[in-house]
Design goal:
Layout: H1 2-25, E1 28-40, E2 47-52, E3 61-64, E4 68-75, E5 83-86, E6 110-117, E7 123-129, E8 141-146, E9 160-169, H2 174-182, E10 192-195, E11 202-205, E12 210-217, E13 224-228, E14 233-238, E15 241-242, E16 247-248, E17 250-253, E18 258-264, E19 271-278, E20 286-293, H3 312-320, E21 348-355, E22 358-359, E23 362-363, E24 366-367, E25 370-372, H4 379-385, E26 406-408, E27 411-415, E28 419-426, E29 432-436, E30 441-448, E31 466-467, E32 469-472, E33 476-483, E34 488-494, H5 497-501, E35 505-511
Parallel strand pairs: 1-4, 3-8, 9-12, 11-20, 21-28, 25-26, 27-35
Antiparallel strand pairs: 1-2, 4-6, 5-7, 7-8, 9-10, 12-18, 13-17, 13-19, 14-15, 14-16, 14-18, 19-20, 21-24, 22-23, 28-33, 29-32, 29-34, 30-31, 30-33, 34-35
Length: about 550
């Protein structure tokens, strides 16, 4: 009897220790966010915006590697709504990706609880609405994943940490913008640029100290250049990759991208301009903020620091200087360079060509001649329950061919654990920005004209950085390498929202016939059902 009691006590203590260990390593963070409309004047004119907990932009999420996020989203606007977590890989869990191919939107006056983990990630990210044109009204915010205490970072801890959400902005209501696109008309040129949802912000720091600036382009369509008057920018992180710490006067940040820089306040005590301005546009839009030295008694003065405007080659050359820090750790203790991606032979080459056709007299956008349309039933639900006639795995080709463009719900099947080469070919005269959910990828090459296999000799197969969003310059190509280690249904899309909304996207179905929790998590018990899935149960 005493042995049994003692065994019971020991088992109980061990159970408590195990639970304590799990909670200590992978803590849970709980949030409740309410989405509403509000009236603000970001560009000086009152307009309807989307607020989260009354905030515009939304609350900043500051979390740590491997944290479990439990976020109850309450939708109080008059349209179905979703948030997506831009750059969070959702390991084995595309159920929580928050796009229309994986989730039913949250109906008005309803809620959905996201449950996801920032598994093996660090870095600067964002979240934003993936539904309709809601992103044009707000609902976006910063999402910063900090390293665990025992994981070193390749620079001294900064004295402060600022998140800057920069992006183009329209004074026009998001529903009117949507109506314009639905009628087949492109959006007009943006009305202005915002920094953290305003035309004017102040960021304060002490002279002699060093601060991290996390800069994300949350706009709809426009590449931006970022710079600070009189100060250098030391690049240290790009979308979860620690970089070689090159010094820049200014940085291009394309739509959907994020960078983190260190700025040392080593100038005379005064106030300085922070500037974000448009790139590759005939008319240059500019927004300013203030870097304020706490011991300053001198207001900002002098001309704005000059940045590049339409110099494409300048941007290409800068992009090629972004390199992986091979000896630095990321979310795990092992160095980033311990994965020798350049020594792996790709199992497949996919070439994706974007286009801007007219279909039935209306403006559409397409990939390899297919202009994507969202079905009423999320692809993930249709795939899980074997619901027929929702999507097709035969419409989009891995190598483009000639012929007319058509509308379809296109899914590209690939195999789990494949390693693929993806060429993003842009034959248009405007810059493109491509994003892949569920992954980061190595950006190994940029080039002009038509890509050919001979261009592989120019790839960086040693220290190309990984990121989740890559730019493709006009009449040029960009090549990425992807290790398909995350099973699920993943959205490949233009980060330029008009193009995404009107068809420049598709889904990649990463699949393994063996179904187990080592490959992919089960369907959530709280999953929302819509379309042909109504009436089903997890």
């Amino acid at each position: 009897m005493e042995k049994a009691v003692l065994l019971h006590v020991i088992c109980g203590v061990l159970a408590v220790l195990v639970v304590a260990h799990v909670k200590a390593d992978d803590p849970y963070r709980y949030y409740t966010w309410t989405v509403t409309y509000g009236t603000l004047s970001p560009l000086g004119i009152p307009q309807q915006v989307i607020l989260i907990n009354g905030q515009f932009p939304g609350p900043r999420l500051d979390v740590v590697t491997n944290d479990n996020i439990i976020l109850n989203l309450i939708n109080k606007i008059d349209q179905p709504f979703l948030l997506t977590w831009n750059g969070i890989k959702q390991r084995k869990n595309s159920w929580q990706d928050g796009v229309l191919g994986t989730n039913c939107p949250v109906p008005p006056n309803s809620n959905y609880t996201y449950k996801f983990q920032t598994k093996d990630q660090i870095g600067s990210y964002t979240y934003f609405p993936s539904t309709l044109l809601h992103k044009a009204a707000g609902g976006f915010g910063g999402l910063n994943v900090y390293e665990r205490p025992r994981i070193p970072i390749p620079f001294p801890n900064p004295d402060g940490d600022f998140t800057l959400l920069i992006g183009d902005w329209y004074k026009t209501n998001h529903k009117i913008l949507q109506q314009s696109l639905d009628s087949g008309r492109s959006l007009s040129f943006p009305d202005g640029i915002l920094i953290n949802g305003q035309g004017q912000n102040t960021f304060s720091g002490d002279q002699g100290k060093t601060y991290m600036f996390r800069i994300s382009n949350v706009g709809l369509s426009t590449s931006l250049n970022f710079r600070i008057q009189g100060h250098k920018l030391k690049l240290v992180e790009v979308e979860g990759s620690h970089t070689l710490q090159n010094i820049y006067d200014s940085l291009d940040v394309h739509v959907g991208q994020s960078v983190a820089v260190l700025v040392t306040l080593n100038q005379p005590a005064k106030d300085y301009y922070i500037v974000a301005s448009t790139r590759f546009t005939k008319h240059v839009l500019t927004a300013t903020a203030v870097l304020h030295y706490t011991n300053s008694h001198t207001p900002i003065s002098g001309p704005l620091p000059i940045g590049p405007t339409d110099q494409i080659q300048w941007s290409i050359e800068q992009a090629r200087t972004y390199r992986w820090n091979l000896t630095a750790s990321a979310a795990r203790p092992n160095p980033q360079g311990s994965f020798h991606y350049g020594k792996i032979t790709p199992s497949k080459t996919i070439v994706l060509v974007n286009s801007a056709p007219l279909i039935n007299g209306k403006q559409r956008y397409a990939v390899n001649r297919v202009s994507y349309i969202n079905p009423d039933t999320p692809l993930k639900l249709a795939d899980h329950f074997n619901i027929p006639k929702v999507f097709s795995v035969d419409t989009i080709q891995v190598i483009p061919s000639s012929g007319p463009t058509f509308i379809a719900t296109s899914v590209m099947p690939v195999s789990l654990h494949d390693f693929i080469e993806v060429v993003l070919q842009n034959n248009e005269s405007t810059i493109q920005s491509w994003h892949l959910d569920g992954y980061d990828f190595w950006v190994v090459g940029y080039g002009s004209g038509q890509w050919t296999p001979a261009n592989r000799s120019t790839y960086n197969l040693v220290d190309a950085l990984t990121r989740h969003t890559a730019q493709v310059y006009p009449n040029s190509w960009t090549t990425i390498l992807v290790s398909l280690d995350n099973q699920g249904m993943w959205n490949m899309r233009s980060a330029i929202w008009e193009r995404q909304y009107l068809g420049q996207q598709f889904y990649i179905r990463v699949w393994n016939a063996v179904h187990n929790l080592a490959n992919e998590y089960d369907i959530p018990s709280n999953v929302l059902f819509c379309g042909k899935a109504v009436g089903l149960h997890p």
